Here is the input.
Amino acid sequence: MTLTLLLDERARRHPAKVFLRTREGDLSYAEFHERSRALSAGLAALGVRPGEPVAVLMRNSADAVLTWFAVARLGAVHVPVNTSLIGSGLAHAFQVTRARVAVVDAELLPALAALPHEPSGLEAILVRGAGDALPAWHGTARVARFEQAALPGVAVAPAETGALAPAMMLFTSGTTGPSKACVLSNRYLVRQGELHAENLRLTAEDVLYCPFPLFHIDAATLTVVAALSVGAVAAIGAGFSASGFWDEVRRFDATVFNFMGATLTILWKRPPRPDDRAHRVRLAWGVPMPAWRDGWEQRFGFPLLEVYGLTDGGVPVYEPLDAPRRPGSCGRVISQYELAIGGEDGSPLPPGEIGEILIRPREPGLVMNSYHGMPEATAAAFHGEWLRTGDLGRLDEDGHLYFCGRAKDGIRRRGENISAYEVEQVVEGHPSVLEAAAVGVPSELTEEDLKVCVVLRPGASLTAEELTEHCARHAAPHMVPRYVEFLDLLPKTPTQKVEKFQLRQAGITPATWDREAARPGTRARPGAGDLVSEIFGGP
Here is the structure.
């Protein structure tokens, strides 16, 4: 089964049932089916072929989901790109995929046009929402309107692609180097959606709401495909907003939603309201699970469920719906996977000992195919048949998993995985900086905040404000450090590797500059609401 065949079946059996719900309105299974077919015909006319990547730089919208399924019908590979990337991060995404065709929101085209060099191999760009005039583009790729690309009435038969053929590339966080394009198969997408629906007991009566971007597995596979697998409604928000979250939950008539990062904390810290239970939500799932879980459930009237997963390996662990809770545990491995805790040499560790979480699928296609164009990184990601997650955990005697942190050099901030390497590249791009190290420090909103430790070039001068302004011009908002500290030297090993554990242990010191405290009109230790606009784009 592929997404295309699954959609064809749903449209045939339940044509009038709503499939996709956005702020733009509802699309039934039949309407979505016809519009995605028409768009696939237009993409075929542009020369999109089976197996080739199509880069998609679009914010959440009905058109973004339609583009995904149009690409899938042609047997091409859907590559959603992080819409907050600019500069070298955006160039890297296009360089890795070398897509000939890109679909881009008009408001995001200037970031692509601002790159020093036109992405290699790019031949055509469909621009969505350009208005009366197409934005300026000075490269050799031809530019056309997305709205004129669809060819209604032109039949395009589904491409014949194998179950394990590439269907999507999702970029990892790049925690130990540049971000990697994770190649996911047709079977991965369909089975992850099916397994998610099975373990959450989703039905055709559910409305699955997700406010997170479609370049995340949460919105794509675990919302859209999960809904498709059972004939439910996929409700995709434009972005997380603390002030607008519950209004959108009610407007979309959501019954299930997912949380990640600080979003749950932000909602919890808002003052209680008389309408806190005025909704149809019956379940929310995500990570991390807060200590005030019971208080949440009493206030809002529905349970929270924890899972463990990653783009590279899907979701192998779910908290059982009916079994008694194990405090601190994220659940048990489901029957389609095996899970073990590995020591430094990969050998299994006994219950209670902390090591790297290893997973192995019991059926094909449940983990990634590879990292696109990176055979060495792909080989390093596996220990025999076991996928190395880079996460630390332990198992109890009954097989319950306890997540203990990340072994990789990454930072988890407000639901975003940040590559320390990529932050350091941006900081070291400033002419006054000799070298830098990025680390995560504890945040009052759970997870971490971003701190950079900086050594200046001899004789150079630079303020923390100037450095963060430089980062804001050259990196996505979630990669701009909150904390900056200038050091004479970075602590290093004899082989000149930075000992980041020392920087993490030091944490926030009297010499650390805090961007939030320095911002006019803000408190030194802001509450959750102060960060919503900056991090999530909401009011």
Observations:
- The first helix runs from residue 3 to 13.
